[in-house]
UniProtKB/TrEMBL annotation:
UniProt superkingdom: Bacteria
Official protein name in the record: DUF1127 domain-containing protein
Amino acid sequence: MSILSSIGRIATQYAATRARYRSERILLSLPDELRKDIGFPEILETRNSRHVATFSSKVI
């Protein structure tokens, strides 16, 4: 593994992290009713409690 490939991997991870946080900030700026409709509070609660949400847990 060369130094350039390591730097490239780190840059890719950094860009993905920035995009995730930017998306989260945009979702947090939406009105509460709209966030509830798309299920965002549930995603945020899951992330804060450190549990992994799966599609199978959403099925009623």
